[in-house]
C-alpha cells in the first residue's frame, strides 16, 4: 500500500497541506498495525539523493567555471545557489512566527487596559480576541511548516553532499588519498554533512530569535518608555563578553576536529597493517599512540564544553538582570506606572525573550561548527582528481 510522497503532497488540497492531513492515512495505518517498509510513503523525486546531487553538481561546475582558484567558501556558494529560494521561503515562515510571538505581550497589554474601562466597547473587545486568535494560529502554523520545510531542505542538502563526497573519493589522486584517509572521509559524511543539514533549521531560528529580541525591546519601549534604556546595558555587556568566548570556541572546535582526524587516520593505517603489527609485536605501542590521541581529543572536547557552559551561564542570567534593571528604570526614571498592565506585560515579554536569550549560545556553537564543517568539506572537494583516461 505504499504510495508516493510526491503524489500526496502535490495532489493534496490547500487545507490538507496546511493541516498536514495528507499524512493521516499513514497515521491511521500505524495505529491499526506495526508499519513495514512497504507502508512508508516513498520519497518524491525532488527529495531523492540523485536529484539533489545533480542540482548541486551543476552549481559546483558553475562555481568551478567562474573561479579558477577555489576559496574556502566554494561549497557554501554552491549550496546557496541551489537552495536559496527554499531558504528564503523558510525564512519567511520563521519571520511570521517571530512577529506573532512578539505581538502577544502587546495584545495582553491591550486586554488589561480594555478591562479597566468602565464602559466596554464590544467591537473593540471582539477585535482584540480576533487578533489574539489570529496571532496564535499564525504562530502555530508558521512554526510547524517551518520545522517541516527546514528539515526537508536539510535532508536534501545532506544527501547532495554525501553523494558528492562519495563520488569525489572515487576519483581522488594518489597524493590526495594520502591527505584524506578513509576515516576522515567517513567523518565528512557522518558528522560534517549532518551538521550542515541541521544548520538549515538552527541558523534560521538563530537570526529570527535576534529579531525577536529586538521586537521585544520595542515592546518594552512602548510599555515602560525611557525605562527601557538601562535594560540595554546588560545586553551590550553580554554581547561584548561573548565575543572572546566565540573566538575561543571556534579555536577549540577546530583543534578537536584536527585531532579526531589524526586519530582516525592512524586507526585506519593500523587496521590496514595489522598483520605486520602482530608479527612485530607492536600492539602495545600503537595502542598507547591511539590512547594519547584520545587524551588530546578529550582535552579539546572538555575545553569546548567548558566554554559553552560559560557562555550559557552568561546568557541564562540575562532575563533576571533585565527584569531587575527594568524595575529600577521604572522606579527611578518614573517612565511608567507599575500597574497591572505594565507588570503583566513586562513579565510576558520577559518570558518571550528568555527562550531566544538562552538559545543564543547554542546558535553560536552551531554557527561555528557549521563554519568548520564547510571549510573541511571544501578542502576535500577541491583536491586533485585522476585524469579520466586513468580511471578504470
Q: What would you note in describing this structure?
A:
- Helices cover 82% and strands 0% of the residues.
- By secondary structure, it is mostly helical.
- The chain folds into 2 domains: 1-42, no CATH class; 43-377, ABC transporter type 1, transmembrane domain (ABC transporter transmembrane region fold).
- Helix 4 (49-66) crosses helix 5.
- 22% of the residues are buried.
Mean pLDDT: 80
CATH homologous superfamily placement of the largest domain: ABC transporter type 1, transmembrane domain
The total number of structural domains is: 2
Q: Strand percentage, roughly?
A: under 5%
Query: How far from one another are the termini?
Result: 42 Å
N to C succession of SSEs: HHHHHHHHHHHHH
CATH fold name of the largest domain, please? Answer: ABC transporter transmembrane region fold
So what's the overall shape? globular
Number of helices: 13
| Helix-residue proportion | over 70%
Low-confidence stretches: 1-7
Summarize the main sheet. Answer: none
Assembly level = single chain
Reported CATH architecture of the largest domain: Up-down Bundle
> How many strand elements?
0
Rounded to the nearest angstrom, the radius of gyration is 27 Å
Helix and strand content put the structural class at mainly alpha
What is the CATH class of the largest domain? Mainly Alpha
Observed structural traits:
single chain; 392 residues; mainly alpha; ABC transporter transmembrane region fold; 2 domains; 0% strand; disordered N terminus
List the helices and strands and how they pair.
Layout: H1 5-11, H2 14-19, H3 24-32, H4 49-66, H5 74-116, H6 122-170, H7 174-179, H8 182-224, H9 232-272, H10 274-280, H11 283-316, H12 318-333, H13 340-381
Helix pairs in contact: 4-5, 4-6, 5-6, 5-8, 5-13, 6-8, 8-9, 8-13, 9-11, 9-13, 11-13, 12-13
Amino acid at each position: 500500500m505504499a504510495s508516493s510522497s510526491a503524489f500526496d503532497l502535490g495532489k493534496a488540497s490547500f487545507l490538507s497541506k496546511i493541516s498536514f492531513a495528507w499524512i493521516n492515512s499513514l497515521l491511521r495505518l500505524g495505529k491499526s498495525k506495526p508499519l513495514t517498509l512497504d507502508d512508508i510513503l516513498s520519497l518524491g523525486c525532488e527529495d531523492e539523493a540523485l536529484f539533489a546531487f545533480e542540482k548541486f553538481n551543476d552549481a559546483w561546475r558553475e562555481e568551478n567555471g567562474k573561479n579558477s582558484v577555489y576559496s574556502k567558501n566554494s561549497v557554501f556558494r554552491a549550496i546557496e545557489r541551489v537552495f536559496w529560494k527554499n531558504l528564503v521561503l523558510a525564512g519567511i515562515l520563521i519571520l511570521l512566527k517571530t512577529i506573532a510571538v512578539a505581538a502577544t505581550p502587546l495584545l495582553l497589554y491591550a486586554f488589561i487596559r480594555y478591562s479597566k474601562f468602565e464602559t466596554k466597547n464590544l467591537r473593540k473587545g471582539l477585535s482584540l480576541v480576533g487578533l489574539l486568535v489570529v496571532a496564535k494560529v499564525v504562530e502555530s502554523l508558521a512554526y510547524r511548516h517551518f520545522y517541516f520545510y527546514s528539515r526537508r531542505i536539510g535532508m536534501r542538502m545532506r544527501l547532495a553532499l554525501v553523494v558528492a563526497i562519495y563520488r569525489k573519493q572515487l576519483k581522488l589522486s594518489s597524493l590526495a588519498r594520502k591527505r584524506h584517509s578513509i576515516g576522515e572521509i567517513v567523518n565528512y559524511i557522518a558528522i560534517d554533512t549532518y551538521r550542515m543539514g541541521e544548520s538549515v533549521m538552527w541558523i534560521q531560528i538563530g537570526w529570527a530569535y535576534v529579531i525577536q529580541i529586538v521586537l521585544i525591546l520595542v515592546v518594552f519601549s512602548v510599555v515602560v518608555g525611557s525605562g527601557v534604556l538601562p535594560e540595554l546595558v546588560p545586553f551590550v555587556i553580554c554581547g561584548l563578553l561573548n565575543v572572546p568566548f566565540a573566538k575561543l570556541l571556534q579555536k577549540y572546535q577546530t583543534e578537536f576536529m584536527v585531532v579526531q582526524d589524526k586519530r582516525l587516520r592512524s586507526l585506519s593505517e593500523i587496521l590496514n597493517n595489522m598483520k605486520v603489527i602482530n608479527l612485530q609485536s607492536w600492539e602495545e605501542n600503537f595502542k598507547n599512540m591511539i590512547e594519547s590521541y584520545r587524551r588530546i581529543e578529550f582535552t579539546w572536547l572538555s575545553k569546548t564544553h567548558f566554554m559553552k557552559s560559560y557562555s550559557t551561564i552568561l546568557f541564562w542570567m540575562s532575563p533576571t538582570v533585565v527584569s531587575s534593571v527594568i524595575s529600577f528604570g521604572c522606579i527611578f526614571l518614573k517612565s511608567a506606572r507599575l500597574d497591572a498592565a505594565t507588570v503583566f506585560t513586562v513579565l510576558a515579554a520577559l518570558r518571550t525573550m528568555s527562550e531566544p536569550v538562552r538559545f543564543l549560545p547554542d546558535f553560536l556553537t552551531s554557527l561555528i561548527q557549521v563554519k568548520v564543517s564547510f571549510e573541511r568539506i571544501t578542502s576535500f572537494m577541491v583536491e586533485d582528481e585522476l585524469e579520466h583516461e586513468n580511471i578504470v
